[in-house]
Amino acid sequence: MTSVVPSGIDEVTAAWLSEALPGTVTAARAERIAEDTGFSALLYRLQLTGTDVPETVIVKLPAESEARGGMALLGGYRREFDFYRHIAAAAPLSVPACHAALISGDDFVLVLEDLRDWENADHLAGLSLPRARAALNALASLHAWSETDAEEASLQRFPVIDDALTRDLFLPAFTPGWQLYLDKTGQPVPDQVARFAERFGDLAPQALTALTERAMLLHGDIRADNMFFRDDALKIVDFQLAVRGAGAADIAYLVSQGLPTEVRRGKDRDLVHEYVGYLKSHGVNDYSFEQAWRHYRLGVALLMYMPVVALLTWDIVPDRSRRLCVTLIDRAVAAIEDTGALEEFR
């Protein structure tokens, strides 16, 4: 296994791959992929020639844009490295096979199984209910495992959901992002949601505090673009925002922003009930529906900040990313009103 971390795709040579993979690579041809969805990293599909090597692999490298600095600040590349090095092999969550994971300073590389024969879901289009339920079960398996079987030392590599960076960086950034949203959306904002947004920096810490009442390992960015389906099977990717906290926060983000409003509306409570049932089937019996529902509603309101803050990159991201941010906030606003989420704030 090589210990050399390439600083760019030109350094991912046949010789380097031969040390990183079990077989021998005699030639490798790289093609950039996911340019309109992957902003925080560079993704390449490599066609390999050689002995005892896969036909293709995916190579993930740090972004070249401003996002690289943001990911370094968040520790995002370190989190994903730690997930594949210390979590993936033991956790029940289905993820791409990892052939190599290396990090050195700000340089980082993953060599992963290519899921080209799987269907990558589309976050802009949103998930269907059957696919959302598959994700609920997958997340419940990860959350439960992290409470019942995981090594504490491995979990401690990931920050809690209520960390100083979120409070000091993201919450203050909400206000300019929200103003940009109001300029871009075509949807009316209910008065109570507008008032909540005006006081977001004061109210959001209540949710952050509550969502640390559990210490489950969360995906942290569980959106459709990070899901690959084949028949009834699901594989999940992208663990750069993995955190520890209440499992229903993952569910809130998945359901409130990942499902089109017309698909989600009227089904929030049922989906949280299903999630709690999945947890019980995986051995966690002390996370009641009442607690999960409270965490869910707090998460629906709090996690609106993710697309709101992301909207501040408007001038440097592709058009799809712009449309996606506005759509996700539209969905979150509707979910906040539909679920009565603001009743949880005092």
Task: Describe the secondary-structure layout.
Layout: H1 14-20, E1 24-33, E2 41-51, E3 56-62, H2 67-74, H3 76-87, E4 98-104, E5 107-113, E6 119-120, H4 129-148, H5 152-155, H6 164-184, H7 191-198, H8 200-210, E7 216-218, E8 227-230, E9 233-236, E10 243-245, H9 247-258, H10 261-264, H11 268-281, H12 289-302, H13 305-310, H14 319-339
Antiparallel strand pairs: 1-2, 2-3, 3-5, 4-5, 6-8, 7-10, 8-9
Helix pairs in contact: 4-9, 4-11, 6-8, 8-12, 9-11, 9-12, 11-12
Brief sketch in words of this structure:
With 346 residues, this protein is an alpha+beta fold. The protein is built from 14 helices and 10 strands.
Structure overview:
Keywords: Transferase. It holds the Pfam family EcKL. InterPro entries: CHK_kinase-like, EcKL, Kinase-like_dom_sf, Oxido-Kinase-like_Enzymes. Residues 110-281 form the CHK kinase-like domain. This is Phosphotransferase. This protein has 346 residues and is α+β, with helices and mostly antiparallel strands. It has two domains: 9-113, Phosphorylase Kinase, domain 1 (2-Layer Sandwich); 119-344, Aminoglycoside 3'-phosphotransferase, Chain: A, domain 2, CATH 3.90.1200. The protein contains 14 helices and ten strands. It has helices at residues 14-20, 67-74, 76-87, 129-148, 152-155, 164-184, 191-198, 200-210, 247-258, 261-264, 268-281, 289-302, 305-310, 319-339; strands spanning 24-33, 41-51, 56-62, 98-104, 107-113, 119-120, 216-218, 227-230, 233-236, 243-245. The strands form three sheets. Strands 1-2-3-5-4 form a five-stranded antiparallel beta sheet, with helices on both faces. Strands 6-8-9 form a three-stranded antiparallel beta sheet, covered by helices on one side. α4 (129-148) runs antiparallel to α9. It is globular and about 60 Å long. The termini are far apart. The mean pLDDT is 95.
